[in-house]
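Sync notes, pocket subgroup
Present: LS, DG
LS reminded everyone that the earlier model was apo-only. Rerun requested with 4'-deoxy-4'-aminopyridoxal-5'-phosphate included. Inputs:
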Amino acid sequence: MSRFFSEKFSRLTPYVPGEQPKDMKYVKLNTNESPFPPSEAVVAAATEAIRHGELYSDPECLAVRRALAERYGVSVDEVIVSNGSDEVLNFAFMAFCDDDHPAAFPDITYGFYSVFAEANRVPYRRIPLRDDFTVDPGDYMGIPETVFLANPNAPTGIALPLESIRAIVESNPDRVTVVDEAYVDFGGESAVSLIHDCPNLLVTGTFSKSRSLAGARLGFAFGQRDLIRDLDTLRNSTNPYNVNRMTIAAGAASLAEDERNRKNCAVIMENRDYAAGKLEEMGFVLTDSRANFLFASHPKLDGGELYRSLKRRGILVRHWDSERIRQYVRITVGSREQMNALLSVVQTVLEDET
Ligand code: PMP
């Protein structure tokens, strides 16, 4: 830290993204990316867009907002787009939380929430998941905080039904509830349909997982006009060109072929169920994941050891050395070949180390 770094950030512990090692070629199952590259149409749209790279991007991002509005049945002023959904989640902490409106989220959830809270100096409360890692909706009813819920949750993959989300949102009419649907396209139920009934609901999503565009950085949020306007005030006060030309074009092109994305999600869900079944046969305990990853532990293997053994053998998964989930690893669901590579290495580890 330099002596110039502001005191207000001096105790900030930044979010640690999944590792991207370059020392060898790994089967990369650690950051929940899609195994499918974007289509030729998406690549062509982004390529065409850079031809006008001397010009700023559209600060209103209309091409992709219109496409999102049409796809999700909302109006254009009920959607905002962002540089990955991380950016709009940060805007939500900035917009809807302060000393009088602290944040609340599960003790086991997306690790960035606590970082956004700390960076924005927002007090927060972590609400423990039940022993089986499910959210108890009752814990979030009528509470004084702004609620952040990933649904499906990460890294557990467990989803709450829409009716529970509705009950939570309706029980806190004076606070915003943010539902982070980064993984919803792999079997969750989206809450977008509730935004017209619920003025205090913000639903965020991303092109990073189900739409094969993690590297393009494109996120979005839906909510009633006033909520979106608040977020837009912050966007325009930080970076009005937050989404670049190539990404706007790629996002719009991707929405034009949403059927293809849906088919890719169906393949990933099949691969998830296939890999889950095989891991269970090997003695693993798994959560009921509705996301593009599995959350797995084995009674005879330490989670950290498993992570390191897999890495040594060329398979990268994610492990957190934190109390309740130390025994688990999170495995991104990729192609059938990647899943078979994982399963065969796991088998070897089990033979060698148990
Ligand atoms: N929410 C959750 C639950 C996530 O796991 C992620 C991915 N790390 C994000 C949001 C952010 O994704 P992105 O910024 O790529 O849209």
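DG: The pocket of 4'-deoxy-4'-aminopyridoxal-5'-phosphate is lined by residues 84-86, 110, 150, 154, 180, 182, 206, 208, 214, 219 (CB under 6 Å).
LS: The mean pLDDT is 97.
Action: DG to write up.
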